[in-house]
Structure to design on (252 residues):
């Protein structure tokens, strides 16, 4: 009994990996570099180019990274999860450190006037990690390290969440806490008196529609990069308010 119990989590994790492979997340390790930004508090990692806000409230905590332009995909990679390990540096890699798993929550902006340390310029694959995550795999004095990384399924608690912002003529929806593939590639919205409307990608994981849907309950169809589509019917009731967040009953 004891043995079979301990195998259960392994079994589910393996199933998850098999699912992800079959839907196209590439699990092979690739080469990149990593730095860190901010301090141990993580204050500088809040907000950012993905449109997320207080990363603690939103469930991401300090297990986050900013991505270079080449990985960011104009914000569509926001929410994806990466497993990262420090390599090829016996001096600065922490010996025996477990690979970290981080969610993409920000952009490491390119700087075309710089001539040194231009890690985040295209076409380079670069992770600008939170201080906490960087110092889990390397000594902070290293500054920049070589890493191997791969996409892994995101593990999230609870359902997909929708934060509603804007005004009666412009509705912008932040989609977050997305499990598995993690990165949303398409969103459609339906008011209780409308058909399905394809939302436009605004910035980060913000999606918008120019339409007055005040007073109508809202449903969403969300597609992630793995091609999986989930429907969230009437996730926001007809008395929904701007500035509020509504949580779906399911996750990817
Ligand atoms: C870009 O790099 C230059 C040269 O190092 C620096 O002076 C400038 O402040 C940087 N710009 C930004 C936006 O960080
Ligand atoms: C959404 O889906 C359509 C095809 O249905 C595709 O052309 C488009 O590039 C997708 N992504 C975004 C960000 O709209």
């Amino acid at each position: 009994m004891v043995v079979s119990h301990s195998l259960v989590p392994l079994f589910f994790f393996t199933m998850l990996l098999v699912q992800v492979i079959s839907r196209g997340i590439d699990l092979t390790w690739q080469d990149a570099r990593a730095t860190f930004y901010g301090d141990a508090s993580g204050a500088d990692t809040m907000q950012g180019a993905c449109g997320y806000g207080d990363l603690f409230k939103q469930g991401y905590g300090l297990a986050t990274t900013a991505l270079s332009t080449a990985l960011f995909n104009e914000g569509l990679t926001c929410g994806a999860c990466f497993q990262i390990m420090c390599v090829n540096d016996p001096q600065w890699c922490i010996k025996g450190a477990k690979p970290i798993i981080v969610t993409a929550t920000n952009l490491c902006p390119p700087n075309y006037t710089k001539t040194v340390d231009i890690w985040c310029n295209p076409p380079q694959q670069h992770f600008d990690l939170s201080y906490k995550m960087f110092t889990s795999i390397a000594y902070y004095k290293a500054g920049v390290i070589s890493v191997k990384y791969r996409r892994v399924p995101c593990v999230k608690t609870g359902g997909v969440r929708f934060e509603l912002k804007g005004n009666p003529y412009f509705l912008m929806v932040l989609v977050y806490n997305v499990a598995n593939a993690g990165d949303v590639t398409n969103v459609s919205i339906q008011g209780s008196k409308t058909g399905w409307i394809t939302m436009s990608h605004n910035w980060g994981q913000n999606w918008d529609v120019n339409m007055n849907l005040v007073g109508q309950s809202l449903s969403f169809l969300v597609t992630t990069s793995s091609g999986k589509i989930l429907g969230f019917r009437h996730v926001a009731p007809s008395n929904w308010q701007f500035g509020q967040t509504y949580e779906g009953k399911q996750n990817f």
Notes: The longest strand covers residues 30-37. The first helix runs from residue 2 to 22. The CA atoms of residues 163 and 244 lie 6 Å apart. Helices lie at 2-22, 69-72, 131-137.
